[in-house]
Design brief:
The chain has 19 helices and 12 strands. With 525 residues, the protein is α+β, with helices and mostly antiparallel strands. The strands form 3 sheets. Strands 3-2-4-5-6-7 form a 6-stranded mixed β-sheet. A 4-stranded antiparallel β-sheet has the order 9-10-8-11. A hairpin with a 4-residue loop joins strand 9 and strand 10.
Length: 525
């Protein structure tokens, strides 16, 4: 389902900065693990993890990085920590007892984490969702329904009365953004703010008998009175003539309002992302190795053929293919990447944008603005649909990535916001219904080919939009169709490794080889 919060380009679309094969798995799980650790007041003594057999995680939690991410979060690590591949061993070395189970739990979301933990003599439980692109929602703590997204410092108070007096005191504070009363036994007061409620602040509140603090895990925090100028492409068009403005103008207006910061700070944040993308391309071209991957290094061969003139003339597209391959190889070797909008589609938009910018000789400011334009298309996608392959197949990942890339290319070419919206609409129309069926249950193939195809799709649609081709269907309506198709797509074709290419004999043979068994990994289907 679409997010109920105003998305942020740097929370929901261009980020997180991470390691691992999948943002829905290995980045979101880090954030869930960190919140679970905070709930316990430190690393738990034991943890029980339950996955629904009817969801996605029961089949993919090992091979797509949920385990290593969750363990890292429980240890207090970040999503880009170099130790991430070794988190299972580190969890064991820390003396944390681990049990993992699968059962039919009837969870409504395919990426549901159920954690039951013990710290000292106290038990804690948490249910959380990975909602796509590294975003999360905690929906239950110790049996109490909550709605936490990692965008606040949360102070959780167990109180001995009905909570109204404590909530009234906290609501009167200027620095408190939201105070909620939830649960019955015990009643819990949930305080959301930029900073925690301190022990000193709780003086004089005798009803409070337990305090826990959950730190924010997103880079852009929310705040009281948060408003954004628009949430949908149609609202953007109504707010200003898209034929007279760049899409990046609207993107900067949006993110400045969402983050409460000036445009210079927004562009500086995007500059940091660009540095990581450039570094990833160079790392990939220099060569990567990793034992648990199915594709060998291939970018060097493409680079050599391109340099020698032995490839068909593809212009920008050939450099985009090279950069897409390099970034995907970094991802598959547990290097640092930017999920943009996801790890599985981390190369479509950034690599294509960078390749086109270099060929055209674009300035750094022009690149940053093109990336902002792409980010705004991601905001519209997040608002009306989803990036999660477990929800909508690969149309949700490389489909969104292609739409974002198309808008970025229009921006680099000097096109208008109207042309950027048209290019994004056409690019997404071209991939509606695209399934997610990872070979050997790894996020490598056909992901690489679909990232490359997304680059070609984006380039074609950008040029079509610039030339005045009619995309016919407005972006909002395409996104509504995107969501409806997701809802009707069979579970077997939504990143469960239960259908499509995932179950071909060759795919199963590769999976078994990597797992060292005749059948494949226990969580690989």
């Amino acid at each position: 389902m679409p997010s109920t919060l105003p998305p942020s380009i740097f929370n929901d679309v261009v980020g997180p900065v991470m390691r691992g094969p999948s943002s829905s798995h290995s980045a979101a799980s880090v954030r869930i693990g960190r919140l679970a650790r905070d709930l316990c007041g430190g690393a738990p003594d034991s943890v029980l993890i339950d996955f629904d057999t009817e969801g996605s995680l029961a089949m993919t939690h090992t091979s797509q990085g949920s385990d290593i991410g969750l363990f890292a979060g429980l240890l207090g690590w970040e999503a880009d920590d170099a130790r991430l591949p070794d988190s299972a061993a580190a969890l064991k070395a820390a003396g944390i007892e681990l049990e993992m189970r699968t059962a039919k739990l009837n969870d409504p979301h395919p990426n549901t984490y159920r954690l039951t933990m013990r710290k000292g003599s106290l038990d804690h439980s948490l249910i959380a969702l990975s909602t796509g692109g590294g975003m999360i929602e905690v929906i239950e703590i110790d049996g109490t329904p909550v709605a936490l997204h990692g965008d606040y410092a949360v102070t959780l108070l167990d109180v001995a009365d009905n909570g109204e007096s404590t909530a009234a005191i906290l609501n009167a504070r200027d620095d408190m953004d939201e105070v909620q009363i939830a649960g019955t036994a015990p009643v819990r007061v949930i305080c959301k703010a930029q900073e925690f409620v301190s022990d000193e602040d709780l003086t004089g509140m005798p009803a409070v008998n337990r305090v826990r603090r959950l730190d924010a895990v997103l880079p852009v925090l929310s705040r009281r009175g948060l408003t954004v100028p628009f949430l949908h492409a149609s609202e953007m068009v109504a707010s200003g003539d898209p034929t007279q403005h760049k899409l990046s103008d609207f993107a900067l207006e949006y993110e400045c309002a969402r983050g409460g910061i000036a445009s210079e700070a927004v562009l500086e944040q995007m500059r940091k992302i660009l540095v990581i993308v450039r570094g990833g391309v160079q790392e990939g071209l220099a060569g990567t190795e990793y034992a648990d991957r199915i594709l060998p290094r291939q970018s060097n061969g493409f680079a050599a053929m391109l340099e020698s003139g032995k490839l068909l003339d593809g212009g920008i597209l050939n450099r985009a293919i090279l950069y897409v391959t390099a970034l995907m190889e970094v991802k598959s070797s547990m290097g640092v990447i930017v999920a943009a909008p996801t790890a599985g589609s981390c190369a479509t938009f950034p690599a294509t944008c960078l390749a086109a910018a270099e060929i055209q000789g674009s300035s750094e400011d022009e690149i940053l603005r093109a990336m902002m334009a792409a980010g705004l298309i991601g905001v519209f996608t997040s608002t009306r649909s989803s990036f999660a392959a477990e929800v909508g197949g690969c149309q949700a990942e490389t489909g969104a990535g292609a739409a974002m890339a198309a808008a970025a290319l229009v921006e680099l070419a000097g096109g208008t916001a109207a042309q950027g919206l048209g290019a994004a609409s056409q690019a997404l129309q071209n991939v509606l219904g695209l399934v997610c069926d990872p070979i050997a249950n790894r996020v490598e193939a056909p992901c690489l080919g679909r990232n490359v195809a997304g680059a070609a799709n984006a380039l074609a649609c950008a040029n079509m939009a610039l030339a005045g081709y009619d995309h016919l269907i407005p972006l909002d309506e395409v996104l509504d169709a995107h969501r409806a198709i997701s809802e009707n797509m069979p579970r077997e074709l939504r990143c469960t490794a239960l259908g499509g290419l995932s179950v071909t004999p060759t795919s199963k043979a590769i999976e078994a080889r990597l797992c060292g068994t005749d059948e494949g990994c226990g969580s690989c289907g």
